[in-house]
Design a protein that fits this description.
five-stranded parallel β-sheet, alpha/beta, 9% strand
Length: 258
């Protein structure tokens, strides 16, 4: 009986008739043996680059970490920046909105109030029914704009001189117009600072020293209210905007009761 590779058997070769059967010779030294297929390797799962684990440094073993996102990052926010005249709230709000990494709008109540040209109720002439009506109209307009921005994924920051002794009209009104997720922050530097900044103003935005002092005194009522307060007496615009962003980041984690 002939068997083996190519019809040749060890028994019929006639070279060593009395030799006992030998173990198989490795392929490199004997007859060619058909290769045995290796077991299929499990499929390699592709990991997206964004979620790949950091690779440690071969020499030091240091594992690089992704950069931390400071402050509010890319969160979509609605912010109400409160403060007296001369606190710098409009300037800070504009700077904060302009330096965020995501689309952010700045809505200034005073700017909207001044859309009224003929018949504008100038606060320098005193607070009366006309100025109150225009104030309420401007607030509703700002609230509508804020909701529209938020509905399209754009954050917004509003600034207004909201008094703590009129919470229903002030905070309550803004909450009704913008929504319950509104985050209020108070900007309250020292009196000498607001007097100095007010003196640099012009037009109807510049108030008398007596009026500035009166407004600042009323704003002091925010202490103890539970709202976050930033004293930016010794901070420039950039530093105040950074403090505002850090304050808002904490407020996102633990919203102030209001």
């Amino acid at each position: 009986m002939q068997h083996g590779v190519g019809g040749v058997s060890w028994e019929s070769s006639g070279q060593h008739p009395a030799a006992p059967p030998q173990p198989p010779i490795p392929p490199a030294q004997g007859w060619p043996v058909p290769p045995v297929p290796a077991p299929a390797a499990p499929p390699v799962q592709q990991v997206p680059m964004a979620s790949a684990a950091p690779v440690p440094d071969a020499a030091t073993g240091h594992v690089p970490l992704p950069p931390a996102v400071a402050g509010t990052g890319g969160a979509t926010l609605a912010v109400l920046l409160i403060g007296p005249a001369g606190a710098g709230k409009t300037t800070v709000a504009r700077h904060w909105a302009g330096t965020r990494p995501v689309p952010t709008a700045h809505i200034s109540l005073d700017d909207v109030r001044e859309w009224v040209c003929s018949g504008f109720a100038d606060p320098q002439a005193g607070w009366n029914d006309h100025s109150e009506a225009q104030y309420r109209l401007a607030r509703r307009t700002c609230g509508f704009a804020a909701r529209n921005f938020l509905a399209n994924g754009i954050s917004c920051i509003l600034d207004d001189a909201v008094f703590p002794d009129r919470p229903v009209v002030g905070l309550g009104g803004w909450k009704r117009h913008v929504g319950p997720a509104l985050l209020p922050v108070v900007l309250l530097p020292g009196l000498e600072i607001v007097l100095e900044r007010n003196a640099a103003r012009s037009g109807n935005r510049r108030l008398s020293d007596e009026e500035v002092a009166r407004i600042h005194g009323r704003m002091a009522g925010w202490y103890g209210s539970g709202l976050p307060i930033i004293d930016n007496s010794h901070l420039d615009v950039e530093g105040t905007a950074r403090a505002l962003d850090e304050t808002l980041a904490r407020a996102i984690a633990a919203p102030p009761p209001w």
